[in-house]
Write a structure and sequence with these properties.
244 residues; mainly beta; five-stranded antiparallel beta sheet; four-stranded antiparallel beta sheet; 2 helices; 15 strands; 41% strand; elongated
């Protein structure tokens, strides 16, 4: 079975009110689970009609934000008819910087959007969360007004864990869970710390697997500087194995 990931980010956010009248995120770390806001008045009519702005996605310098469509298709039968593009935009004035393949829209099931900015607004990590796995984890830099060094990270982490999972060969479950964090350090490197569990529902008496992943991703170099999988157990699940 393919290992999938669930990313749980619990981060406090502090909002202030910039001149444009849109709340901005000063801490550089934000979670968003509520309703989006209408786009600024200077946004083109076609975007104002179909898109919303995630208020907690606004960068610390209050110049950048993430917008997403009101409608989308979570399970498209045709890849070409999938979820509409999400975008990084500038504020005051409004401008589309470029698309971000986050796959997030207003009515998506089990929605959760986590945006972590560098303090100088030069890089960010966006996590689109699902019930048992992140739909994606996108890391990127902003250089000369453009998106640079963009990379999706969750599939790579899944692949690293897959080897140990296969060696264990646990009972087949639909809900393989992973909880952890994806954080930017001051050098624009993503610190990844996760724990993966094959028995997401904690069913006793089933052969189960658990492992930890720790890694360090360089956004600028687009490569893993560190990566390590540490097995925790491969055996029959016990009641004491339930996360505390």
């Amino acid at each position: 079975m393919r290992v999938v990931l669930v990313v749980i980010s619990v981060l406090a956010s502090t909002l202030t009110q910039p001149k444009s009248g849109i709340a901005a995120q000063d801490s550089g770390h934000s979670d968003f689970n509520g309703d989006g806001r209408e786009l600024p008045a200077d946004a083109p009519a076609e975007y104002r009609a179909d898109y919303l702005l995630a208020p907690s996605s606004i960068s610390p310098n209050k110049k950048l934000a993430f917008i997403y469509p009101k409608e989308g298709d979570e399970f498209p039968t045709d890849p070409e008819s999938g979820t509409a593009d999400n975008y990084l935009v500038t504020l005051d004035p409004f401008r589309i910087v470029g698309p971000l393949p986050v796959g997030y829209f207003e009515e998506i099931n089990h929605k959760g959007l986590s945006v972590k900015w560098a303090k100088d607004s030069s890089a960010a990590v966006i996590v689109s969360e699902g019930k048992w796995s992140p739909r994606c984890v996108i890391a990127f830099e902003v250089k000369e007004g453009q998106i640079a060094h963009q990379r999706e990270l969750s599939q790579a982490v899944s692949d690293f864990l897959q080897v140990d999972y296969n060696n264990c060969a646990p009972d087949d479950f639909m809900e393989i869970a992973l909880s952890g964090s994806w954080k930017l350090n001051p050098k624009n490197k993503v610190i990844v710390k996760c724990v993966s569990d094959s028995n997401g529902k904690g069913i006793s008496g089933k052969k189960s697997w658990r492992a930890r992943f720790e890694g360090l991703w360089s956004v600028a170099k687009e490569k893993w500087l560190q990566k390590r999988v540490t097995p925790v157990f491969c055996r029959t699940y016990r009641a004491s194995d339930l996360p505390k």
